[in-house]
Amino acid sequence: MTAFDAHDPLGIDDLLSDEDRAVRDTVRSWAADRVTPYVADWYERGELPGIRDLARELGSLGALGMSLTGYGCAGAGAVQYGLACLELEAADSGIRSLVSVQGSLAMYALHRFGSEEQKQHWLPSMASGEVIGCFGLTEPDHGSDPSGMRTRAERDGSDWVLNGRKMWITNGSVAGVAVVWARTDEGIRGFVVPTDTPGFSAPEIKHKLSLRASVTSELVLDDVRLPADAVLPEAHGLRGPLSCLSHARYGIVWGSMGAARACFDAALAYTREREQFGKPLAGFQLTQAKLADMAVELHKGVLLAHHLGRRMDAGRLRPEQISFGKLNNTREALEICRVARTLLGANGISMEYPVMRHSTNLESVLTYEGTVEMHQLVLGKALTGVDAFRG
């Protein structure tokens, strides 16, 4: 019988193939070398310096558009993509957000709904990280209810003219292309917007207290004129952007467990070394109770993510099941981080440790791409057959 592993108490590693482990270990090694030593400083400064270099490096790893096929994309399985998200978020949620928005939102929208010309033009350079993408859905007045969006696209001859604003857009001010959703006379449509188009601007949002090592922007569209072929031909209505969000939410199911793991590991190491009342903190019953509860929720969450990944690989994953994972894992990850903070005492708020940084990041992860309440209602509707979103 193999020895008990405090970092893999259920032996989840046994569920992974050699290729799965190779993907995980490659991303973990890259994050340990290129992110972990520097991210506390980036977070404190509220910036992500060298984001273009990081994007190219992630592209060389095959991490951008990782689960897509063709056009320079890696064509990896869903579990492998999930493992990459977990390792990236164990370093910082902002880095995983960079990858998620690039691959699961902007690239996924082009790959699934774009014309062949759009795919050929944008996807290879996005897969390599030479071009960064963003995804414009959320608006200043409409987050959880995208059906109320005010951004409009009007026909002018054969052209489209876009006007409106999008808010809380990751990668916005460094993007070379934006996938923007707008209301038209034909319903909601998606548009491929090169960011050097006149009338497009993306001022960066400052003074954030979460996701500080990440680029977050507003998108402003002021009479942005686009040719007829800028529209995504296969996307009609809200089903288009919502399917992109489902793909991105799947990455969050895994990624949130990465942040939780980092905080659990920090708490476990700290309590083994820190002495109070003549012995290590780990020797007290209340400490062990906290660590046990944290480990149970962490590894239950990883098992849930793994199960959803296998369902996605089999083509059987439903949006309601993704909501199940996003709801559970983000809530439990945040609670794990909060408990870790108590075990570290005052040191828990120090940037010398990752706990408070992950905790504040997870406050955003908890609510972006679907708040707790939205996912509860998605599950509530699936369970009862009654739609309670509007009353």
TrEMBL record:
It comes from the Bacteria. Keywords: FAD, Flavoprotein, Oxidoreductase, Transit peptide. Residues 236-383 form the Acyl-CoA dehydrogenase/oxidase C-terminal domain. InterPro entries: Acyl-CoA_Oxase/DH_mid-dom (IPR006091), Acyl-CoA_Oxase/DH_mid-dom_sf (IPR046373), AcylCo_DH-like_C (IPR036250), AcylCo_DH/oxidase_C (IPR009075), AcylCoA_DH/ox_N (IPR013786), AcylCoA_DH/ox_N_sf (IPR037069), AcylCoA_DH/oxidase_NM_dom_sf (IPR009100), Glutaryl-CoA_DH_mitochondrial (IPR052033). Gene3D superfamilies: Acyl-CoA dehydrogenase/oxidase, N-terminal domain, Butyryl-CoA Dehydrogenase, subunit A, domain 2, Butyryl-CoA Dehydrogenase, subunit A, domain 3. Residues 17-130 form the Acyl-CoA dehydrogenase/oxidase N-terminal domain. GO terms for biological process: fatty acid beta-oxidation using acyl-CoA dehydrogenase; fatty-acyl-CoA biosynthetic process. This is Acyl-CoA dehydrogenase. It comes from Streptomyces reniochalinae.
